[in-house]
Description:
This protein is α+β, with helices and mostly antiparallel strands and 164 residues long. The chain has a single domain, classed as CBS-domain. Helices cover 24% and strands 16% of the residues. The chain has a three-stranded mixed sheet with strand order 1-2-3. Strands 4-5 form a two-stranded antiparallel ribbon. Strand 2 and strand 3 form a beta hairpin. It starts with 13 loop residues before the first strand and ends in a 30-residue tail after the last helix.
Amino acid sequence: xxxxxxxxxxxxxxxxxxxxxxxxxxxxxxxxxxxxxxxxxxxxxxxxxxxxxxxxxxxxxxxxxxxxxxxxxxxxxxxxxxxxxxxxxxxxxxxxxxxxxxxxxxxxxxxxxxxxxxxxxxxxxxxxxxxxxxxxxxxxxxxxxxxxxxxxxxxxxxxxxxxx
Length: 164
């Protein structure tokens, strides 16, 4: 089965000029731990994850986890471009889903951007793959299917590779 058959579209994305506050809000809305960062043409140029944003902002009032000299609740930068990761992993829509499973397991990822011709065309979430593993007869009454926005999805379980 191909990734395009299970990926969620459209993908939620950010730009380098997006605010870190907007990034946190979109992550919460999409129930995502990371989001792809694209340029004006929609080309994937980076990724920002919750850890990037937490390191940048620091929890208000918690001095134990802030870098020396940081004031709680303040930011080093308010733009995603300053905190995003340039090391990007992605999959193509015409790759087998096992490629996404292997990548998620080896790198401990919850989601992976799906890129075609350098543009983000979707996202494959761990929950997309879990639903596929469960199959339509084992969804326990849940009507969610691949392509359902993450905000409408049930909580994920651990991802396991089906036996061969």
